[in-house]
Amino acid sequence: MTDIDNSDLSNARASLERVQKFNTATLPQKNRLGDELCFEPAVDPANKIIGLYRKLTLSSLEDFPKTQLDVIVNQANADFATFEKILNYKPSQGVAERDNLINQLNNRYSALFQNIHPMISYSMHKATDFEGLDVKARSVLQQIKDRADDIEKSLAAKTIEADEVLAKIKNIAAEQGVTQQAIYFKNEAEANEKGAVRWLKLTVWAAVILFLFAGAALGAAYLLPPPSGLYAAAQLTVGKILVFGVLSFALYFSAKNYFSQKHNAVINKHRQNALVTYEAIVKAAADSANTDIILNQASSCIFVPQNTGYSALKVSNVPPTTSPMNFLLKQASGE
């Protein structure tokens, strides 16, 4: 600012600020001039011109020498004078003058750009705080990096948690897969129980009929006269033996089927309980070795024949139950 004084800077600031604040909405004047003479076509070029002036910041004027300030003052004053001519236009001036003013604005932008674009470039460069933008950019990048690190840590923790949940789900699915098989033994136990009830009824009826027949035969021996002749006595004796044999066989057959059905019902109920309680016992196990022992014992309870009291089992036909100690010894020896 060695070759300019405060008056030059003040004039430049006043001229630039005046044209920057000009309201182009006042140019058309339709109410005063009518549709034919109004300056509606002048609004768009006037906005472009004022937009170019607004790219010059008032603070940048302090850095311009007197020559550039004079250029800004002359250009701004000339354009503002054109705006005033439009505002002061009278219909008596004719259509030619109106069209001339509009053409001046239409052709003005190119010449104005050539005259002030170097000052605009400097003004925009000064208005842009590149150092501040660089600091802000670095700050934003650091925030993004920190946020990304937090998200990565959170995702890693979520991944571990998801793996644990998945492992638990797999274990539950496996345990449920075992316990769900108990339904088959339950259904079979219920079917055997119903069959046992039917055979029990048949056994009771067979016993009642046999008892009645035996009572009738005994009573007939005392009440009826004995048959005459050896042939009649033999025929009556054989007939009674046959009837007693059939009734006794029916009683035996019914009772045997009843005991068999009850035996199967108890066995299947026992297998159901073994599978249902398997999950709870496995959860109480401390390690996988104990789980294997529990599974081995559960398998023994299911598949090894059991003596229920309803069906007599010979000791030689029942394989011995594998003990946990034998199981551990086999695992240790690799058998």
Please describe what this structure looks like.
The protein has 335 residues and is mainly alpha-helical. It has three domains: 6-128, no CATH class; 130-178; 179-333. Helices cover 78% and strands 0% of the residues. The protein contains eleven helices and no strands. It has helices at residues 6-20, 30-37, 43-53, 66-87, 94-127, 130-179, 182-223, 230-276, 278-284, 288-303, 324-333. The two termini are 102 Å apart. The relative contact order is 0.06.
Rg, nearest Å:
57 Å
Structural class: mainly alpha
Helix content: over 70%
Which consecutive residue ranges, at least 5 long each, have pLDDT under 50?
315-319
Proportion of beta-strand residues: under 5%
Regarding quaternary structure, what we see is: single chain
Number of strands: 0
Throw out a few tags for this protein:
3 domains; 11 helices; 78% helix
Annotate the secondary structure layout.
Blueprint: H1 6-20, H2 30-37, H3 43-53, H4 66-87, H5 94-127, H6 130-179, H7 182-223, H8 230-276, H9 278-284, H10 288-303, H11 324-333
Q: Short summary of the structure?
A:
Helices cover 78% and strands 0% of the residues.
